[in-house]
Amino acid sequence: MFRSIWHSTKPSQVISRAVTRSAATTTSPVQFSMDQAGLVTDLYVPPRDLPSWFTNPKARWTALKRRVQLLGVNTYMAVKLRREIGRERFQPLEWKETALLLYQRTNECFVHRDLSGLSKLTSRWVYGPLAARAQKFPKNVRLDWKLEKLTAKPKVLSIIPLSLPDTPTRFVQTLYRIESRQVLSKLNLDTNKVDKVERTVVDNVAFIFDTTKSPAEGRLIGSLFETPVNSPMPDPTLSPGSRTEIIRSMTSRGDIFREPPQYLAIKTEQTA
Prior knowledge:
Layout: H1 3-6, H2 16-22, H3 57-85, H4 92-111, H5 115-119, H6 124-134, E1 141-150, E2 155-162, E3 171-188, E4 193-210, E5 217-224, H7 243-254, H8 262-270
Antiparallel strand pairs: 1-3, 2-3, 3-4, 4-5
Keywords: Mitochondrion, Receptor, Transit peptide
Organism: Wickerhamiella sorbophila
Subcellular location: Mitochondrion
């Protein structure tokens, strides 16, 4: 979707310790559903555009080194997950296809104000901000959205097994980069005038999947922005803080149409 259209209606990784903390006030076993899933911390998202070897060789080397590190981490996580859940339940291609379908249907339900459908596709942390935005759409405008084409193959940026205490691994969190050409149509019901906006959109979108289900079942749980080359690597092992901070973090990253950082906003305008 086109973030700039929704900026005027502003409404923050699920990890086992966050789930455990949220249930720590009870003595019953930890119960978890995909609806509760959210992005508690930032993950490393490699920038698409690398600095030039000639103008900034140090930054270029740093970016390449981080990509190699990310490949190593993701390979380890994939092997770990496959060992824990077994070959039959390890279906990365199916997860990717389902993620793309969830992404498309989420955008469609959003522009059509289909809140019931939206609640079945996203976690509560995505549903809340999007429902708030949808309710503020002008009453005299009918929106339609279409993914014209993928401009690149969806790329896996992260794969993380999610383990709960004393429970076999069941859930996996994935992060994909989805690059596409999208068309947003706006019909003014008063004048019957149709405005169409077509843009190239790049989203880094996170999902959770239940590996015990076939075909795959999942939810869209949030989005992340690129990590600048000159910024420190995000550390997902850091304590997410208090329960209030965890909720704030998941709600913020669940608003997938939030404004991008300034350094990305400039790039977005250039690719419009």
